[in-house]
Write a structure and sequence with these properties.
It is a single chain. This protein is an alpha+beta fold. The protein has 3 domains: 2-163, Nucleotidyltransferase, domain 5; 168-294, Nucleotidyltransferase, domain 5, CATH 3.30.420; 324-438, Substrate Binding Domain Of DNAk, Chain A, domain 1 (Sandwich). It is 26% helix and 35% strand. It is built from 11 helices and 25 strands. The strands form 6 sheets. Strands 1, 2, 3, 4, 10 and 11 form a 6-stranded mixed sheet that branches. The protein has a 6-stranded mixed sheet with strand order 16-15-12-13-14-17. Strand 5 (52-55) and strand 6 form a beta hairpin. The longest helix has 23 residues, at 231-253.
């Protein structure tokens, strides 16, 4: 009973870390759907400007402020405003302040730390089981800096995951009523660099159901700074914007059977996208909001920690994901069992597994490679040249599977010996399985 109570208190967090603004959603184990942190309780102020202000030493307040407070401090000349935190981390660029150069990961650490301090009003930090970070455009440098920032922010004991916006879109839709995704689903995300579309399709003939997302950026939809413009100029600009969005929507909806459409971002407004909305609402359900990605990241984190049947029934496949289940048949007592190693749909940067096996017959083992597109299961035979197998279950080897990029699975095999009687030879074998062989 006490264990169940502790489990209910556990929470997962989805952190949408954007260069313009960030959002944080959270979900406890006994919640059916996530909530999104608001800067003002009782209101829907989800967007936190992703900026820092390093206050001057003469100020009595804390050294750092974030979000709207940072913008206000900078406007009042109380400190130095630091913007583009995600871009700085992506390019690993430090910032020179009045007394020091501050690394990109240290800047992100301050932002994450203070954001989670706000979150603690909603969920205790000690109850957080896992955090899934999502960014619009990720690279290895950015993920490494976010990892270091999270550790500096005091999250070293939390489970950390990374999900692309496509992953978050997939996870969000999977947890919605099925009638919303009977057919294809379209999402438009409107930010300062334009509109980015995400098209979700599913191949329901495979088991598990294989899901795919096509994304495309439309920079011609970049919003303009119009406060100083005359009303006629504003009207003309918005009319042109509406026409461009309508053209994009007709092109995409004309090729697919769209069940639902999502419009994300504060730039979308009923005041200007009248014709576009009129078209999109024909026989489709249209939703508007701006916290889908943080909620999707939250769902994704929950699936990692408290797995549901959805994770085994549907798999999202992209160029960054493994497109086959990899495992091996092992002897357990008197019976042969299948031992899963890497699962299809895993991001290459998350694909890692390490375990020991006993070689009983010879110096080889065989991997089962099952593509999720329904094609024939393949076998990959791995031989450990030079290893003499004694046949009495005293040959123990360690297997490590990992990926250094999206192109291949790496396998590292280490001779671990068997106690004092059969010490390790220290030998290490390395094999590489190119993805084109197993996709």
């Amino acid at each position: 009973m006490f264990t169940d109570m502790l489990r209910k208190n556990k929470a997962v967090v989805g952190f949408d870390l954007g260069n313009d603004y960030s959002q944080v959603s959270y979900c406890r184990a006994d919640q059916s759907m996530p909530d999104t942190m608001s800067l003002v309780m009782g209101e829907e102020q989800f967007n936190i400007p992703t900026v820092l202000c390093k206050r001057h030493k003469t100020e009595e307040a804390a050294m750092w402020s974030i979000g709207t407070e940072a913008l206000r401090d900078a406007s009042d000349k109380k400190g130095m405003l630091i913007e583009d935190l995600v871009l700085l981390a992506k390019n690993n660029v430090s910032v020179k302040t009045e007394d020091a150069d501050i690394a990109a990961d240290a800047l992100l650490a301050e932002f994450i730390r203070k954001t989670l301090a706000i979150l603690s009003l909603y969920v205790r930090t000690e109850d957080i089981e896992a955090i899934a970070f999502t960014m619009r455009d990720m690279n290895s440098q950015l993920m490494e800096n976010v990892k270091r920032a999270a550790v500096q922010a005091g999250l070293e004991e939390k489970k950390l995951y990374f999900l692309s916006h496509e992953d978050c879109f997939f996870q969000y839709m999977l947890h919605q009523p099925s009638e919303m995704w009977i057919h294809d689903v379209l999402l438009y995300d409107y930010r300062s660099d334009g509109v980015k579309s995400y098209l979700l399709t599913m191949n329901r003939k495979t088991n598990p159901v294989a899901c795919f997302i096509e994304s495309e950026l439309f920079p011609e939809m970049k919003p303009a700074d119009l406060p100083q413009k005359q009303e006629a100029a504003k009207t003309a600009f918005y009319r042109q914007l509406d026409a461009e969005l309508l053209e994009i929507a007709k092109e995409q909806c004309g090729k697919h059977n769209i069940t639902s459409v999502f419009l994300l971002g504060d730039y979308f407004s009923r005041e200007w996208c009248k014709e576009s909305l009129r078209y999109l609402c024909r026989e489709r359900r249209v939703f508007q909001g701006n916290n889908l990605f943080s909620k999707g990241a939250c769902y994704g984190a929950r699936e990692k920690v408290f797995t549901s049947t959805l994770s085994t029934s549907y798999v999202y496949l992209s160029e960054d994901k493994l497109r086959a289940n990899i495992g091996m048949n092992c002897d357990k007592g008197q019976e042969e069992i299948y031992f899963p190693i890497l699962d299809a749909g895993t991001n290459w940067y998350d694909a890692e597994r390490e375990f020991d096996v006993l070689l009983t017959k010879n110096n080889t083992f065989t991997l089962n490679i099952a593509p999720v597109d329904g094609s024939k299961i393949r076998l990959a035979k791995i031989s450990l040249e030079g290893l003499k197998v004694r046949g009495n279950k005293t040959n123990r080897v360690g297997l490590r599977f990992f990926m250094e990029d999206s192109q291949a699975v790496q396998i590292e095999i280490t001779d671990k010996g068997f106690g004092e009687f059969f010490p390790s030879t220290g030998r290490i074998w390395r094999e590489c399985l190119p993805l084109e062989v197993i996709s």
